[in-house]
């Protein structure tokens, strides 16, 4: 412990300054610990940190056995061992394992993220759909599937180039994500198309209005569009206690999207599917 052997420690008060402040109460709680050990018939064992006079922190293990005379405990005999090297190795291993786990989690999240827009990708969407579907059915909640398509996006790329097209995709994705509720899942469905899963949403019209307004607020110029700016078309299916499967719901949402585009784009179409 870096102390002068010629100055013996005779009391707990003398010993407390040797111990790390976070461990001192636990390492010097002798009476309660002794009573517990005697009741269970166990030997004493504790790991704590010491504070050397030069400020170095060392890890110590204290072990002791209780001696009895005529069945009565009379004293404890033990020793303190320096286990700093092994503890540092163990802590380093724990930290390495923690960093490895964190890296695995980060990689797993990256696999589920669209690299261009940063929102969920198709793999993430496909993985979440069964859970969202089961939850909505179990709780009798409405589930809405919405498909969002950027209008005249090919012309946009032709006019401004693919880097500008990528930038536009990122801005649209961010606007949809920021407009959606916390419980909603916004994913890149493919190309310039996005999918939004809206749990507990029997009426998605207010959210469709917000999506349209959010993209309009971006005010991205588009010389190849009749409106002169980048717009979106949305098709949504609101399902409540319906026997339709997820593929059927997506098909219905796609048909609603087609109807919105056929109707002139820059609009949304909402259909409903209610069990009768």
UniProtKB/TrEMBL annotation:
Single GO molecular function: diguanylate cyclase activity
Key words of the record: Nucleotidyltransferase, Transferase
PROSITE patterns per UniProt: GGDEF, PAC
GGDEF domain span: 141-273
Keyword Calcium tagged: no
UniProt cross-references to InterPro entries, sorted A to Z: Diguanylate_Cyclase, GGDEF_dom, Nucleotide_cyclase, PAC, PAS, PAS-assoc_C, PAS-like_dom_sf, PAS_fold_3
Residue ranges occupied by any PAC domain in the UniProt entry: 44-95
Reactions catalysed: 2 GTP = 3',3'-c-di-GMP + 2 diphosphate
Domain of life: Bacteria
Pfam families per the UniProt record, alphabetical: GGDEF, PAS_3
Class in the EC hierarchy, top level: transferase
Enzyme Commission numbers on file: 2.7.7.65
Family annotation (Gene3D superfamilies): 3.30.70.270, PAS domain
Protein's recorded name: diguanylate cyclase
Organism lineage: Bacteria, Pseudomonadati, Pseudomonadota, Gammaproteobacteria, Lysobacterales
């Amino acid at each position: 412990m870096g102390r002068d052997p010629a100055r013996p420690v005779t009391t707990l008060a003398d010993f407390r300054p040797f111990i790390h402040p976070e461990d001192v109460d636990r390492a010097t709680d002798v009476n309660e610990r002794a009573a517990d050990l005697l009741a269970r018939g166990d030997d004493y064992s504790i790991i704590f940190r010491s504070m050397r006079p030069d400020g170095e922190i060392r890890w110590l293990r204290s072990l002791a056995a209780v001696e009895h005379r005529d069945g009565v405990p009379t004293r404890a005999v033990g020793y303190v061992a320096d286990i700093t090297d092994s503890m540092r190795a163990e802590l380093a291993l724990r930290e390495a394992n923690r960093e490895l786990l964190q890296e695995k989690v980060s990689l797993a999240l990256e696999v589920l993220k669209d690299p261009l827009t940063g929102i969920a990708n198709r793999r993430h969407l496909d993985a979440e759909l069964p859970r969202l579907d089961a939850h909505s059915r179990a709780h009798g909640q409405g589930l809405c599937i919405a498909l969002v398509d950027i209008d005249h996006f090919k012309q946009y790329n032709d006019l401004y180039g693919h880097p500008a097209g990528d930038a536009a995709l990122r801005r649209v994705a961010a606007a949809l994500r920021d407009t959606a509720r916390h419980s909603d899942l916004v994913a890149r469905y493919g190309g310039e198309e996005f999918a939004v899963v809206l749990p507990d949403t029997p009426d998605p019209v207010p959210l469709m209005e917000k999506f349209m307004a959010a993209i309009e607020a971006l005010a991205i110029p588009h010389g190849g569009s009749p409106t002169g700016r980048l717009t979106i078309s949305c098709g949504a299916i609101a399902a409540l206690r319906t026997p339709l499967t997820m593929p059927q719901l997506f098909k219905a949402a796609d048909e609603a999207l087609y109807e919105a585009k056929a109707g002139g784009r820059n609009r949304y179409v909402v259909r409903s599917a209610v069990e009768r």
